[in-house]
């Protein structure tokens, strides 16, 4: 199966999310994370994975 930036996957609870996403685990606080998220969105990503425990929420936002 081939996927592209508009491909989606349906989760067990019937929620549909983009197949491709940017993971921010271990992404450092600061400009590096801000730029990574900005560039991912510009490239077409619409799924940004983050969690409070990553401690980079402000930069992801």
Q: Mind explaining what this structure looks like?
A:
By secondary structure, this protein is α+β, with helices and mostly antiparallel strands. Helices cover 28% and strands 16% of the residues. It contains two helices and four strands; from the N terminus they run βββαβα. The chain has a two-stranded antiparallel sheet with strand order 1-2. A hairpin with a 5-residue loop joins strand 1 and strand 2 (16-18). The longest helix has 13 residues, at 31-43. It is globular and about 35 Å long. It starts with 7 loop residues before the first strand and ends with a helix. The model has no long low-confidence stretch (mean pLDDT 94).
Q: What attributes characterize this protein structure?
A:
two-stranded antiparallel sheet; globular; 61 residues; alpha+beta
Spell out the blueprint of helices and strands.
Elements: E1 8-10, E2 16-18, E3 22-23, H1 31-43, E4 48-49, H2 57-60
Parallel strand pairs: 3-4
Antiparallel strand pairs: 1-2
